[in-house]
Design brief:
The protein has 201 residues and is mostly beta strands. The protein is built from three helices and 19 strands. The chain starts with 5 loop residues before the first strand and ends with a strand.
Amino acid sequence: MNWQKYQLDNTVLKATEALTLWKTERGVMEVGEDTLAIPIKLDDQRKGYIFHGHGKLLLDTIVETEEGAVGRPVEKEVNEPFLMLGDTEKIQQHLTTASKEDFTKIGYENQQEFVAEAEDLYDQFFERGRTCGRQSFGEDHGSVFAFQNKDSKLDVLVVKGSKMVYKAKGMVFVSSENKVVLKSLSEVVLSRNGKLFVIRK
């Protein structure tokens, strides 16, 4: 897939109500009312958004073992711009054109300031190759989220059905139906079909 074919739209929208962007047993990603959104398009179809508002990410990144639980959940307030690629059909119904007051609420002087921030994140995700997979994302391919961290790098969450991959500073968590892998700075924990393997660094 040629990532260069993705483009930022020139329309800025806002959420008319709180939205759940993704939700499974393993986690949830939500944004609040009045969150700003600029569409990401591919061949004139909306394939994702860059959002900025008050969001929350919750992930169950715990590995259950016979000896007890390993790891801890991710609970993150998302108050910086972040990117989402995936099924946008349900989201589109809850977005409307943003006004000048909507930019002020989030802390921007005007639309151009928000667009500049969105373009920086877009460039970081697409042009520097910090992406997961080489395909276009839609309903059949799950969703990808990219969050800015304190090191000005990206934490990435990829979800598809019961499968989840989360890569952040100091940790990687992979979950599928019968296998869970947690990699931290100190150890690698693998749980498969109820069996546990631990490799300490």
